Amino acid sequence: MARDTWAYRDVAVESFVDARSGALRVRPMAGQAFAPSLRVQCARALVDPALHPPGTRFLLSAKLTDRLGGTPFLYAWHGDPVVVLSAAQAKKFLAEFRRGRI
Predict the structure, then answer these.
(1) Which of 28, 68, 74, 85 would be a feasible disulfide site paired with 40, CB 3.0-4.6 Å?
(2) Three-class secondary structure assignment of the chain
(3) Which domain of life is it from (predicted)?
(4) Rg of the chain (C-alpha set)
């Protein structure tokens, strides 16, 4: 079954250690259409500290969803390739977003 790609958009995200649980999580980077407090559901590989340490930045193709009226979150399909961003690439992406080019 093909997924609806029209609802997806590029989002720069970063991994962080959740203060409450101590688990590695992913959140949108500040300066985009989505608040950093918004939860992100993505491939488990992105939150595996053996593969990617906390603070790693990624570029995801994600869509906003709420799964039957629940709390909104970003969903990134687990089968998409993992794109790791350097600090310079993330800064450039956010600058392009602010200029309205993304």
Answers:
(1) 74
(2) CCCCHHHCEEEEEEEEECCCCCCEEEEECCCCCCCCCCCEECCHHHHCCCCCCCCCEEEEEEEEECCCCCCCEEEECCCCCCEEECHHHHHHHHHHHHCCCC
(3) Bacteria
(4) 13
